[in-house]
Amino acid sequence: MWRRLWAQWAKMSDRNVAVTRLFGMLLLLAVCCLGFIALSDEVSEGETQDFDERVLRLLRSPEDPSLPRGPWWLRLTAEDVTSLGGAPVLFLVTLAVCGFLLLVRRYRTLLLVLLATVGGTLLNGLLKQFFSRPRPSVVPHLKEVMTTSFPSGHAMLSAIVYLTLGALLAQLTERRRLKAYILTVSLLLPLLVGLTRVYLGVHYPTDVLGGWVAGLAWALLTALSARGLRRRSPALREEVRRQVE
Q: Do residues 194 and 210 lie in contact, with contact meaning Cβ atoms separated by under 8 Å?
């Protein structure tokens, strides 16, 4: 009898945790969407322009705006780190992960990764075209840029790719420490990429903030969609649980 009661309690506990996690994800998604709408409205009305320009000036030498503050190696480091959010690097990372999923025959998971990354890229392009915010002109750019400014593509796409892949890797382990480590790295990479975009003078701080928020929202939406698909697809559930051979 005790074993039966314990099994029922454990089942209810797992169900409560799952419901709480789902509610938390939905709440965070709503906060991200509302936050992005509010931020984009402020940006479109020019309410953030003074703050944005002030931050960019603070990161440059008062005597020569083309010289960033900090030691000489900081600029070189920023240029290397910012490449982690560039299209070539993100494409290669996604391609490598897709190749791995193809080799282990996780075709449904592969499709989810492709939908998340390709869909996020298209969304970023649409948002940039819709807002059409010019790049910062208050300081010289330390990196060549071609597209419009809001939201930051590097910040948004790095958040989408690294968070999506981080969530995928976290499913492969049951240890909480490893899950926490993977998710921490997945959050840290977009954070560093976004900061370098401001340091290099190619984005306003609000561009990067908008990219982070939009990228997180898209990653959450992808995770919720994958969760719903797993509930409806026994084959996908089995694919996620299956050990890598």
A: no
Closest to 213 in 3D by CA, of 56, 22, 38, 79: 38
Amino acid code (one letter) for 71: P
Average pLDDT over residues 97-122: 87
Number of residues assigned to the chain: 245
Residue ranges of E strands in the chain: none
Q: Are 129 and 89 in contact (CB under 8 A)?
A: no
Which residues on neighbouring strands pair with residue 98, listed in sequence order?
Answer: none
Between 124-128, 161-165, 234-238, the lowest mean confidence (pLDDT) is in 234-238
Q: Which two tokens stand for residue 14?
A: 């797992």
User: What is the per-residue pLDDT across 50-101, written as a single tens digit (0 to 9) for each?
Assistant: 999 999 999 998 888 888 998 989 999 999 999 999 999 999 999 998 998 8
Query: Rounded to an integer, what is the distance from CA 224 to the centroid of its chain?
Result: 15
Strand, helix or coil for residue 64: coil
Quote the longest CA-to-CA distance of the chain: 80
